[in-house]
């Protein structure tokens, strides 16, 4: 009894998580040596575009290039890439499915390597971007900056893994969470300053209401699921069938198919895809079309086209991604392997078909909700002309809600394993 | 996590000061008389009572134990053994090589911890070891004034209780675990065996806590089973083809029924759906296929007395009381056409993992723990310490030889045996299954090599000690399964003690019968029968005189053969016998031993010069520890020895867990008879083995994580149960239950909005009494919830009191027992039900991962709900039954 007691104490875990988050937060403001921040500030005051760049890194309006400037983002990108690779490369997906602890370890170390690569790229780009801002810029300094930032990113990765292992919550998601939350004050300020006086109270209330609805919708989206009930060989083998009297509902044998299997991935992918046209346009490849684009009709409809394609793409990516997360064929095979079946449906092809159909419906519902939630703020913004509202995008909201839900679940799980200690009266 | 590599001191350094202090005390202790030594025990006990700190007593108690051991057994603990004792006392695992005297080491912490008067348990893996250790080591404790106990399978309740009350109890893990479970099913406090746990030393700790971790201890009662389905399902398998109708997965020991297979079976059986809950076939079919294609006779089980007996994979021994679960055992019985025994229903169960964690202080010893260090640390919080050997280890582990296929491997083994046997070096060949050991025996027969075979077959088990005793003899070849692992001590040149005992037994028994038949002058006549005696006549006349006295001793003549054997076997363990004929027999043994010693010594030297015991492994086991156990049979106490593993590309380990590409390369490159001997391949094999170990570790870790919840629930239930069991009267409990039940009922009915006369009838149904008879239903609706509850409570108290009075009048004095038993019975019943639900839940939550839910968290969530539900149902049943009960 004793050895689990202190390991699973909620308070200890909470304190550890908070401590590490605080440490990383502090590290973000710890200036990288060699960079003259006076020069930087001077430059930034003149070049607003860079200001947005630097501040987005740290999550608020600092002009410090800190040790942990890259934060957890290299890792996030790396794991997204890894996730895609796993689902696309048959060798890797086989490794993940069949291998045990060792496979998990090798995938983890691959992700870490990718993180290292990504941080190198990202820190190099920062180093070269700073060339314009710093007088004493030279290759040695650039090299140093790369080393500092990459090291910082790797330390953050290590700390985040410690949170996952010994603390409360999942390290990387908690870090993203803190980054989003730390940008909230700035966001509110921005909204207030940019729309002060122009907006009536009514729109404020309305937008508050919309925010509430959006949050509610997100929770529903995250938690909503369709239970596919199962009947297992083991259950049938139980001699006195404790559940035989009641229906299957009580048995606990079910597959929960979530409305939103894919999480925030569809939005991220969509955003990434939608950047491409702008990018191409900026490259000047479409110069021939310029007269066409600048036509007033087109400018007006451009936004609409953008949002429609945004909506459609999210829908498509959701559908595509959910089949990656849960493949009906694999699921059906797994059911057959474990001698478990869906009542009334024959194992094998019939089950696959059934699952495919159920999943299609469930995901479609979830995808529509997701797409609606993602485009909603923009529509609101357009209607109420509350600028800055989009900054708190649905992605952020989804992450915030997701992290909080995960946290509560983890806390509940810890409480539920310790609850029995209180039963010795 | 953060460990300074420079800070890590060697184990010897760590305990240096303590060892020095113990050694310093030795001369003082030596001067004490026996009586004074014994007196010291009482002093130490008193000091513990005063100080409540064992650490202050370590030095003195260790010195005392060492001296007592020297005076009783003639064995003085080496310094490394003292280190072992300190490690054990520190609640850690001591890794000690074979033959380093683990049993003696255990006496040090056992004595020390017994000073608390709270009892010490020394757990061994089998009864023979328990009784051997208790008889020999018991002398030390007795000398020091402590009681020892021994638990054996056939003991009665009072015997068990008495033995568990002893200061130090030797017991097998099996018995101990089951006694714990039985204690928690007892309906009367008088039937409880065990005291609260204090300290435990587990011998062969890796076997108990790791190899057996996945097999839970189960107390079950049989339920009526329909055997037809097992038989029909078994017959169906004849009409199924591998890879057409079903597929097998050797790694996970599971089978998959294909669509074609499903259709085929449905056609044969003439049913629509195998999963039909009203007429389920699928579990029977799956089990039948598993039985026919994954479980083999003489590999996984043997057939003995018309029964299926499981052969344990790790120890190679049969497990007569163990049965496969979930209908698999019945399926195997159907396959082998033996009587199908009834299925069982778990009434109580616990895993060794959780059972041993009940001890506030736990320690263990084994020869092979280092490779499982992480597991011991993570699951049991038991650090592993390697104890240095008293003498340097001379064993030589030769690199593995890898052959192209099984055929050339076995041939190579036989040839190797032939070559080695030319110089008469003793050989021990370890095989993994009964089947393979017999196959190899046949092969050796063809090569005309005489050999002994040791496996789980009953005829071989009977000769086990004899085979082992001779395994170290010049020129002997022994084929064994994993049985020749733990606790097998092979002495080079043969074990004379064993030979002497055997010879003497034959002599004594013959004479016993002859004197009984009044053939006076038998001794001189029958010298002819035993050539040994004739030889002895020349060297020791005294032997014959004593023998003559002995066979005229009335007491001796009254002994049965078995008793003679027992005395002979124990004579080595007991140094100072008490009864006269025991003395005589001891003398005879010593005399014979002395006589044989010269030849034995010579043999020993010869075998040592030949290079000691040569161990041949025929296949890598799933775990490195098991291989090391086999290797550890040679090179004991600084003897020379060699070990080599002969492997083939077709071995299970390589086939299932190796690299497919490597396999192909090896297969194409290897010539028929030429082996590959390369460090690289050995390394690859090591990593494959590591992978298997890791997989199994994951399984056990997973089991542990899930079982942890059930264990916490079990602790709560057992605690509550124990309190009821120990209480004078369960009256308070009943009243508390009553209050809870009433508040649960009322709040539930309120929630469901049940009013009026319906409410009255519902409550009457739920409580089983005539409550509320004189209560107008209209008034009910106007009552506040709290008033309504108070009213019901009053009614409950009244009915309860009247019930007690009623019972007291009819059967005076029965009420307390009645109440207690009532609660206990329903607790047990609902716990049993709960266990079944939890076992299903464990299975069910696995599917939740498809909703990106953590199965463990989901398990915790649902387990808590089930647990709460269990409590509610128990309370309701108790109150319902109590209020309804009428005098019969």
Task: Explain what you see.
- Chain A has helices at residues 2-7, 10-28, 37-46, 48-58, 73-88, 90-98, 101-129, 139-166, 171-194, 201-223, 233-237, 265-283, 290-293, 296-325, 328-337, 349-384, 394-418; strands at residues 225-229, 231-232, 254-258, 340-341.
- The radius of gyration of chain A is 25 Å and the shape is globular.
- Chain A folds into 2 domains: 2-193, SecY subunit domain (Preprotein translocase SecY subunit); 218-423, SecY subunit domain (Preprotein translocase SecY subunit).
- By secondary structure, chain A is mainly α.
- Chain A starts with a helix and ends in a 7-residue tail after the last helix.
- In chain A, helix 5 (73-88) crosses helix 6 (90-98), helix 8 crosses helix 9 (171-194) and helix 12 runs antiparallel to helix 14 (296-325).
- By secondary structure, chain B is an alpha/beta fold.
- Chain B has 5 domains: 11-216 and 354-386, Rossmann fold, CATH 3.40.50; 224-342, Alpha-Beta Complex (Pre-protein croslinking domain of SecA); 400-492 and 612-681, 3-Layer(aba) Sandwich (Rossmann fold), CATH 3.40.50; 496-599, no CATH class; 710-884, Helical scaffold and wing domains of SecA, CATH 1.10.3060.
- Chain B contains 37 helices and 21 strands.
- In chain B, the strands form 5 sheets. Chain B has a 7-stranded parallel β-sheet, with helices on both faces. In chain B, strands 15, 16, 17, 18, 19, 20 and 21 form a 7-stranded parallel β-sheet that branches. Chain B has a 3-stranded antiparallel β-sheet with strand order 9-10-11, with helices on one face.
- The radius of gyration of chain B is 33 Å and the shape is globular.
- The mean pLDDT of chain B is 83.
- At the A-B interface, strand 2, helix 11, strand 3, helix 15 and strand 4 of A face strand 8, helix 13, helix 31, helix 36 and helix 37 of B.
- Chain B: It catalyses: ATP + H2O + cellular proteinSide 1 = ADP + phosphate + cellular proteinSide 2.
- Chain B: It is a peripheral membrane protein.
- Chain B: Its main location: plastid.
